[in-house]
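The data are set out underneath:

___
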Amino acid sequence: MLRRTAPLLAVALVLAAGLLAGGCTDTEHTVEGVGTVVRTDDGTYVIRAENGTCYAPFSLNDECRVDGTVVYFRGVLPDGGRAPGSSCIPIEIRDIGTYVPPGENATITLEKVWP
């Protein structure tokens, strides 16, 4: 009986070690949500999420650098805790855009102006 289960046990241990090692190398965590862009006193921009979490983006495109803009964002949190000199969590933005609440009219009607 032991001879038959030993190979299975060895395979299971190798697979478990691989899964554990794979989990240890994962240093990024994806976050997404809705938040408000806020310009701080020192001129930097942060995103205050609806849940109260403050994110400090590494870079923010010019269109989103407007104080009070509500945005949908998705990004990656590198390991390392807080941004230097800030109580906000650093984030590398992967996707960001103006947020339109569900049920709101998200379409723009263009009218042709005749000369």
The first helix runs from residue 2 to 24. Residues 5-25 have pLDDT under 50 and may be disordered. The radius of gyration is 23 Å. Helices lie at 2-24.
